[in-house]
Amino acid sequence: MEPSLPENIARAISLLEERIDQLDNKVNEINERVNKRIDILDASVEEVRHQLERLRIDSAGDLALIWTHFLMLFLALISRPENLLGLIEEISQSISTLERLKTFDSKTLRNLRSDVLKVIIQKASEIKCDVGDLAERLVKHFGPSELLSPEVKNLVRKNFRQEGLEIWEKIVK
User: Fold this and answer.
1) CA distance 132 to 2
2) Residues 6+ away with beta carbon under 8 Å from 146
3) Beta-carbon neighbour count of residue 92 at 10 Å?
């Protein structure tokens, strides 16, 4: 005897429900695999991002060091105060360009500016540059917090004596 139409429909529905359950299970398995791969990719991308950031920081530090050494070499060639005072503008523009291009992070730029300032002060002392002229030129390109930092003040005192430091402080303030 053949099954009745309602029995056939019930059996078809049952088979369809089983097939739907099987497909749901397959979809869930695929989703789990996809999610695992996504997690692995996310972790890999994050690791690559961290490595690139470390590389950027390392290379920025290396670039800053190279830039400072190049500047020191260039300053070694200067033998007259007016040449040094003229170069300060160019150095400041170079640093501003580095800031705009975001070549270095803010800490590296601060260190670079500090190193440049120290090298300029030392060179100014070597070539007998007037401390007042130097301060007037530097105040246009460096902030009071940089020019009056304890380290810079000690360097000015060391290179231009106490009288030079007093002139420096009057001009910077």
Assistant:
1) 114
2) 113, 114, 117, 152
3) 17
What values do phi and psi take at 103, rounded to 5?
Answer: -65, -35
pTM of the model: 0.62
Q: Shortest CA distance to 60 belongs to which of 97, 93, 95, 109?
A: 109
Tell me the two tokens of residue 40: 């692995």
Block residue for tokens 């300053």: 75
pLDDT by 10s per residue, the chain, length 173: 687 888 889 898 999 999 999 999 999 999 999 888 888 877 777 777 777 666 665 666 667 667 776 777 777 777 888 888 888 888 888 888 878 877 777 888 888 889 889 989 998 998 899 999 999 999 999 999 999 999 999 999 999 999 999 999 999 98
Of 128, 114, 117, 113, the closest CA to residue 159 belongs to 128
- CA angle 144–150–151, rounded 5-degree value: 100
Query: What is the DSSP annotation of 30-46?
Result: HHHHHHHHHHHHHHHHH
